[in-house]
# Entry
Amino acid sequence: MNHAESLTVSAHGEREIVIMRRFDAACADVFDAMTRAELLRSWLTGPPSWSVTECESDLCVGGRYRMEWQGADDAQMAMSGAYQEVAPPLRLVRTQTFEFGCEPQAGQQLETLVLTPVDDGAATELRLTVQYPSKEARDGALASGMEQGVAESYAGLDRALDEAK
Amino acid sequence: MLAMLADGQEYTVGELAAPFDVSLAASSKHLVVLEKARLVRRKKRGRTHACRLNAKPLKLVMDWTEGFSATWKRNFAQLDGVLTELKAASTRAKRKRKEANRK
# Structure
């Protein structure tokens, strides 16, 4: 079954983005896939043409996780943080910091994952709340993807940028 | 402004400000922000400043802002695949256990 259409991304309060999605799998499997390095590696690959170059996850309170990606032209990106609450298979809280070449998302975010069993446990409702350090940071992250047609206009800009290099 | 600079040409602050209904001072301020973000490079050419796009960090940002939602959408679709595999693996394991018990 394809639930891709059921993804919702919305602004909550001043500093939060809430991501919701339903999966045709038990909460335990979703929890594993979101926290075990060997599984994260296979799906959290980032934008098209990027790939995971490093992934580690020490799943315990205070344990750290880190993922690194590589894109074209040796561009690199990393995401890391520490687990604050680990309560499988329903709840996880962790800090998160992105490292880009030029820090468009400065500051630390707090990510809260809540999984709720539905359909007698056969499916899972995922709710991922990302709290940003400021309203500006939240709005920036959200604006980047919410504007329709941005991708198309960027494609033209992309070509121009390649020539400008 | 970034869209104007995207053709790779150099523009003066005045040229960049022209299409917008804002003061030269406000445009200049905006450019300083872009410069601080390392998205624009500014060179002094006589009495004017020539601005040029610094494409590399912007390309990186664009990849990662290709869509906050779009990225999650695509990555979650991949997660669907992982979950299907996990389910199949646990079904296989259950079947094996059953067979082992029967023996």
User: Anything to note?
Assistant: The longest strand of chain B covers residues 40-45. Residues 2-57 of chain B form a domain with the Arc Repressor Mutant, subunit A fold (CATH 1.10.10.10). Chain B has two domains: 2-57, 66-102.
